[in-house]
Amino acid sequence: MASTVVVIDASARRATIRTTPAMILSDVLQEACNKLGAEASGYGLKHKNKNLDLSNPIRLSGLSAGAKLELVQLSRSPSVVSVALQLPESESHGSSGGRLIEKYPSSTTLWLILRNFESMAPHRNYTARAKTKTETGDAGAGRLFHEAPVINIMGRELTSFTDLQKTLAQLGFNAGSVLLRLGFQVSDTPLEEAMEQIERYFRSVSGDEKAGSHATSMTTKESVPDTTEPVLPEEVKETQTPPEPRSPSSEEQQSTATPSIQPETKIPTDTELGPSTITGPGQRPISVFRPPESSTPQAAQQAFNERDYEPTVAHAKLHQVRLQGSGRNKTLLSDKELAERENAKAQRVADIKEIVIRIRFPDQSTVNASFTNLDTARSLYDMTKGLMAAQDEPFLLSFRSVKGPRTIPPNGTEKLISDLGMSGSTLVNFLWGEQASLEARAKPVMKESMLAQAKELEIPRIAESEAPEPVPKDTATEERKEGVKGGSKGGVPKWFKGLGKK
User: What predicted TM-score, i.e. pTM, was given to this entire model?
Assistant: First the structure.
């Protein structure tokens, strides 16, 4: 039996929706937003100050005929929904109970969920299946027709490609969990035509570049999942990120930069390698410094001022400001802001053309060398091996990255700047391998020809800080204070006594 409900927005505009008992509340929201000119993905429905579950049909929602529903705006940040994909028997091998379970933002489309489940295993193919239609069971060549995925949600089947582009929020799932039953249906569309339709759809939505990369990966017979296709936000699922946005402008990069991101790295010059620049292995300019003569570190030999360790009023105020800032509620960054921050960070790394690496050996001798953004971990190992006297002995190189100590792979092809994250002046420690001989450990690591050209490492001494000069007192202020005190004690100020004399 048909009925009606009334949807009212914040500006008191009304939209009357004709409903049936089997009509889903998400469809009611979609129709109301179309009439009121709003985007359904950003709104929800309320009845008597209670949020309605948009996945329920009218008969299970408890609404009476002519009920008045409020159109309320939802949070811009998507919520987390636990999705369970029930596989058919033919595809259930390799999964626990025939189900795949993952968490996704409510802004994720059903098509993207299927593509993500495909990417978890190379043998999975849910979106680009094909089947030969033959009237007889004889084997032979035939035309492949697209076997489209069909998803059943609470008895509601979504069969068309357009239906699979709906998000979880549009289907009424903004929180909790949902079960998707997967099936397949052979369509009357040939496989190549279906791929063209999919390509045309993504071109109209996201542009030619995204559509081309998506359709190219799907036209293969094995249907390898598209690795360039956008995945979901980091705070929900690390294996998925949102669609790749445009490159932010310089003003946006400055506004989205945070203190946790490293500042721009200064490109070193040849003079920064040191005064003793010589030609090293591979015709690379290097600077060699002999180990210090004293076992006491240079920092311990310098005098210091005890007053530098005494907290001042300025330190206390700064600490109080930081405590107040950490106690305030902060809005989480949106998907766009997170993507812009990552793009800004990647751009800063791309701007680094050259860095200086200091290799410190066990005998405390050091070597400075410059490396470009094209040098790899193997380049660093090859240069280090060219400096060694015992080149057959195993060794490792390690440095301290942002995430902690990290060992550089000996034969790795990772680039020092873009892949390993080196920037500015980086200290790399030389470590002997477990199979290194005791004879090699006891001798100096570098060749005698290199040690003969080594220079003393000059460390500039910091001038001792002098005691701060006392701030001169304001004489006028002191006189006013004394005048006030004198007036309160004597009862009659000095200027009043002079009025009685003639």
Answer: 0.40
